[in-house]
Design goal:
The protein is of the alpha/beta class. It contains nine helices and 13 strands. Strands 10-9-8-11-13-12 form a six-stranded mixed β-sheet, with helices on both faces. Strand 1 and strand 2 form a beta hairpin.
Amino acid sequence: MRGLVIKAHSGFFTLHTEDGRTIICQAAGRLKKGKFEEDAVAVGDWVEAEEIKSEGFAHGRITRVEPRKSSLSRMDPVVSQKEKLEIRQVIVANVDIVVFVFACAQPDFHSRMLDRYLVGAEAQKLPVLIVASKVDLVGEDAARKIFADYTRVGYPVIFTAVDGPSHQTNGIAELREALRGKLSVLTGKSGVGKSSLLNALKPGLALDVGKVSAAWKKGKHTTVVPELVRLDENSWIADTPGLRSYAVWDVHAEELDGYYREFAPLVRHCAFNDCTHTHETDCAVIAAVKQGEISPERYDSYCRLREELDHQPKW
């Protein structure tokens, strides 16, 4: 039988099969080889499994994992440190789109956090959607100004106001259409209005996702227990709050400029091939910042993340 892995926990995997059943499986021993490089089976994987019936209880064994087209990953925060290796923890496989939810106010918008997430998505070649929530608290013109740096460099932004006045565009229909037929992943810190968005997309969905979200908080985010929740017949959604470290998986300081969309076309015009864009003379990126072509906030976030990457362990 063929199925989608919708939950993974302690070596057990819940499959949603093509014929609509739910069955608990374990992975065949041979699939576990190489697990110290990346997870052999992860949520979002399409797999083949054989059904086993014993004592009236049906369960299964995963025998094959289909090739992944993408994955949302991070450096494993426990095993990497122990093994002194960069070990990939696959959070969700076969992701079609990553949705970053940031409020316009309450809590205040933090551009550096969004920039960090975007670097991670660019590095992992994942399509991105930014959702600006609580537009009603600041007004649509102010909201568009807050996110102008991102629309200017080509990131799609949907402006939502779930609890706002009825005359204000709430963006839910647009968001629902953007997620239709996709396996999507939401991330955003507490209080940005994800529950309201989920309930607007499908009443009761926030309750289902909320049960899953509690599992992400175990062990100060070192234990990740993701689960896919069904949005509609052909759409699945996962919630990933607080994944600060995922954004810098397999990103090295010298390649960071390639993950800032407005920096990348300018790099070849720098005087030095190894330009860090932090202090050099004849740097095209620094010149663009001075000329107002690159926002100072985006440049500052680059410099801070560059410094962090320069000091991370090199195993």
